[in-house]
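Risk register update: the risk of archive-format incompatibility is retired. Evidence:
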Amino acid sequence: MFGSKPVSDVFFEARRFGDDDERSTFLTELCRDLLPRRAGSLVEITHWEGGAWAKNYIPGAKGVEIPDDDIEREYHDRIEAQSKC
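Archived output:
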């Protein structure tokens, strides 16, 4: 959707999680890890071969939605792959 342009605030409709919420802790840690990374590094992560983006990529198409099930599957696949290292 953004191409090479800066990513704007896409989270204005996101639910807010309480400070004691497990999801809030997870998201805080995730942001701490990802915010300092360069754009190329983030593209490498999100375009993982066999991941949700790769499964739904259509050359030249814009705005293709990635199903939540594919995102969840990638998350579990990455955890499994990491535990084998």
